[in-house]
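Go through this one:
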Amino acid sequence: MTPRQSSVVARSGRRSVVPSLLATCLLGAAVAVVGWLLLLLVKGTVVLIAYALGIAMIVLPLLLARRMLAGQPGDERRRRAVPIATVVVLGAVLCFAAHLVDDHGWLLVVIPVAAVLLGRLAQTGGAALRRVRRR
């Protein structure tokens, strides 16, 4: 190697890493702040929609129940009351889930996963029950 080449290599090896570390830290902090703000925005939107839908699922069926059940015989009245009660209970569960997500943001991921798993279990259980009844 010539003396000129060795000095170029020596200079490039002495560069400070502080500016690149500082830039990386600033970029990481900016991404973290934007991510946190997005989480708060998404969580707030989900909670607001869940409360609105849950309250509507409680209030509307209860307001319309009298009209839906009026003039029906006893068996038909009971058959129609079950879906009304189911919707009201689901609305209460939705409001409770919104309250929990508002307090604990990580439930925003866990609750939908649990709902899908419970739905799959119910489907599988229903299919198994129908097979047993057919035999």
Notes: Helices lie at 3-13, 18-69, 74-103, 107-134. The mean pLDDT is 85. The CA atoms of residues 70 and 121 lie 36 Å apart.
